[in-house]
Amino acid sequence: MGKLRFTQIYLATLGLSAFAMLLNIELSNVAGIAALAIAVVILGLPHGALDFAVAKSLNYVTGVRTACSFLAIYTAVAGASIVFWIALPGTALSLFLGISIFHFAADWRTTMPLYARICLSAMLLCGPSIVNSAVVLTLFTALFVSSDVAAWIIQAMQMIFAAAFLGFLYFVIAAVASKNIKSGWQVTEWIALVTSSIVLTPLLHFALYFCVLHSPKHLFDVSQMLRVSLVKVIVISLPFVFLTLLFAWVLFETGASDALDTDLLRWIFIGLFGLTMSHMLLIHLWHRA
Ligand SMILES: CC1=C(/C=C/C(C)=C/C=C/C(C)=C/C=O)C(C)(C)CCC1
Ligand SMILES: [Fe+2]
């Protein structure tokens, strides 16, 4: 049981999505991005909204004063990151991809050596650049990156994917040779992730991984650390989910300028960048503790 359940739920959702794609059941651009926004809010946001609880259990927050400092630093980092993206989108995107590879790699920290999980995480983030490079180019330019720089980043992603593939192949061969693979589900999850990153449309692939695998695994980890149920963990996250939404809504009202889908896409990814800079740092400190 435990985290295996999430692997199975992820595989089932992925299978259904692939089936829908085969049947040509696809959402329009606006509907697709709106669905991504809703999924990120319902399934993705709570995992970041638990950062306050994580900070409390790490004793970074012990009273009202430290709580205010924590929230102030967290919001300042998020705000500064968003300003940084607007000023230097290409640099910010590259940094975001690099740090995200490191952050997502932690999903497999109990089952794989560091190099192998970095390779898997790099593949799942860089896979969309292989077949769907044109889509990724459109997405990156919608995020304010110039097409020259976006094309350059996509080439780098393709090279990183190739290197990560070789590294991961080495890990799989070594694991099979030493009979070190404990569960067939694990192998299925790796193959599914890599295939999904190459084959599915980039946003669908990302939404499925982020909302149905990364976020639930993290919610589960936090529920174990706090020794409370999964439902309780979600309840704990709710005030911060609403606070973030309120903030996002105010910003959206003042800053929205383009077509709805482009604006939503910008707020999802640039907002994610801002929020995840603090989130990734905090979770890194937690996993190291
Ligand atoms: C922008 C963009 C991508 C990268 C997304 C990233 C890097 C998300 C990171 C989220 C994090 C770190 C959440 C933390 O919990 C893809 C999927 C490559 C392709 C489509 C456009
Ligand atoms: Fe995360």
Largest sheet: none
Low-confidence stretches: none
Number of helical regions: 12
Distance between the termini: 25 Å
Q: What's the alpha carbon Rg, rounded to whole Å?
A: 19 Å
Instruction: Give the overall silhouette.
Output: globular
Number of domains: 1
- Write down how many β-strands occur, each being a DSSP E stretch of 2 or more residues: 0
Helix and strand succession?
Answer: HHHHHHHHHHHH
Instruction: Indicate the structural class.
Output: mainly alpha
Mean pLDDT: 88
The helicity comes to over 70%
Bound molecules: retinal, fe (ii) ion
Quick structural summary:
The chain has 289 residues and is mainly α. The protein is built from 12 helices and no strands. Its cofactor is Fe(2+).
Question: How would you characterize the overall build of this protein?
Answer:
Keywords: Cell membrane, Dioxygenase, Iron, Membrane, Metal-binding, Oxidoreductase, Transmembrane, Transmembrane helix. Catalyzes the cleavage of beta-carotene at its central double bond (15,15') to yield two molecules of all-trans-retinal. With 289 residues, the chain is mostly helical. The chain has one domain. 82% of the residues lie in helices and 0% in strands. It has 12 helices and no strands. Helix 2 packs parallel to helix 12, helix 4 packs across helix 12 and helix 6 runs parallel beside helix 9. The longest helix is centred in the middle third of the chain and has 31 residues. The radius of gyration is 19 Å and the shape is globular. The model has no long low-confidence stretch (mean pLDDT 88).
